[in-house]
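User: Continuing from earlier, I have the next pair ready.

Assistant: Great, send them over.

User: Here they are, in order.

Assistant: Folding the first of the pair now:
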Amino acid sequence: MIIKLTQAHIIGAFISYLIGVFIVPFVIDFSQKEGLVDVPNERKIHKNPISRLGGIAIWSSTMLTFLCLVLLSYYPYGSLLSGILLGGSLMFLLGLIDDIYNLDAKFKLIIQLSIATIVYFLGVKIDTIFNPFGGTPLELGILSYPITILWIVGISNAVNFIDGVDGLAGSVITVNSITLALVAVAVTPAQPITALIAFILAGSMLAFLTFNFNPAKIFMGDSGALFSGFLLATLSIAGVMKGATLAILLPFMVLAVPIMDITYSSLRRILKGKSPFVADAEHIHHKLLKAGFSQKITVAILTSVAIAGGAAATYFTGALKHYIAYIGVLILIMIVLSIFSVLTKEKK
């Protein structure tokens, strides 16, 4: 059976959600038995040990969905896609090892730079930037490499930085994925392969959120955060930056929340004479919690910022009407999943 690309988008999201919902409970049981849990400390806000291997479910559901699409006789081959899938898998493995063995921050950075370099030479690169004076976009030349590496590694870690409140990172990633998908098909020329990957990631993330909304039963860990952040970074390059006139500006709108947080956190740590990679409890979500907001309200505030950024990006590409419809459905789904999470927790 051969399916069309538009069908692959919807089917891919649906398959990845079903696979994810099936896998997550097994990951929770396994990590609890093996002691692979996130133990509370002065920097954490949860009170009980919780599985930190959610990335296994997110990565597995995403990759198995591609296998299902192959069996359905649809698979968009290409060096860009290969680079994204390979790099994403390597980022996942790095994060998984870190979740288990707690790697040194400098070592992790070196490996991340190496992975970003690999995908750069596979064609995932920022070649041009928007020309503020009009005319054709500016060619980056030799600056293409450092700018691309900074973007990929920066966004990957930015997503990891916001993973500090139940449901926050998953909600923002889901909104960002849907936004990137819609922008990718709205720009000229359209980037349907990017949209496909983004929809699949959204489906995987919704499955994870089924068990991650407050009170969470599982965390995505570094494996899930680095994998998802890497996909968002590379999808924004392969699908958005290569398509629209204002392409270089759109990802900053789409990824507003993680970019704001990593910028704020890095500058704050550097000004204090500390390494920007040393974890602390002073991220934007921590500030909101200290201001008296609950975890749910904190998630709602920052997710709203992500939605607003997505609305701005889709407005400039002419996909705003579709975006409003998708986000409206997404919000309803997330409310239902949040209620489900609370009810299942109360039964235990």
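And the other member of the pair:
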Amino acid sequence: MPGVLIWSLVFLVSLIFLVKSSDWFIDAAEDIGLSFGIPSFIIGLTIVALGTSIPELAGSLVAVKKGSSEIVVSNVVGSNITNVFLVLGVVFLVSSRRVLNLKFNLGDVLLLSFSAGIITYGCFNDQVFSFNEALICVLGIFAYIGMQLRNYFNTKEDDATDKPPFKFKSVLILMVSIVLIALSAEYNIESIIKLSEILGIGKEIISLSAVALGTSLPELFVSLSAAKKGSIEVAFGNLVGSNILNVFAVMGIPGLIGRLAIPDVILGHGLFLMLIATAALVLVLIFRKFQKWQGIVLLMFYGYFFYVLISHNLTAVSG
């Protein structure tokens, strides 16, 4: 089937470009921010933290424009599940340490729990994520940033650094990366729609599995590197922030543009597994301890997640 091969190649290439161009955007924006004397913490909080959700956000905006809004919630739920069950599971297995040097932060626990709660309520309320629910998510972005700023100023350290020289190259890279993000997101969503039609696989299934895995691979590599260096706090912090902002930004911003449809697989199993993943993160935040067997359990949940997706698609096809 040449059509399948062509659109599979388009999907793979566009996903790679989407992730890489997002990295270029983050690096260029960070360089520009530093050259203007913006504190590195503020840059990390805004550009870098929000930047981890750029691939999902770009794809979701295009999906709404193309009338395939069910891809949006699938992107968010699939990414959050993959971040915990796969990424955190692998980190637990490879890390030599078993204790996180983290101060208990009630704000992180509350926002993480609230983000899971608002998406669950929005999906089950009327099976459509509405404007009002999306607006709450966007306000959640400001709440998250405000909480991080408060923590920063309460424990502020000298962040003074010499301003690097302004580079026009960074501006050029920023502009090019924005164009590449837009184009790659367009082709990525189009390939999902075409593959769904050719193979008879739901668009939400592709988004929950292949897209979620592809956009989580950079976080997996970064987290693995941090874990091997003994900096598991960095890996864990990235996952917590990513899961919070995935809901607030990737559901919130597209939801202001149009109502987001909720696929059956999300209502049946997706949200349930995402809530388990959220609970796992909350427990680690509270107790700050883990064992290798917990990593195995998380990976088993990830295997079950794929089993659910395959079973759902076979049922849909036979039905």
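Worth noting for the second one:
The chain has a mean pLDDT of 85. The first helix runs from residue 2 to 35.
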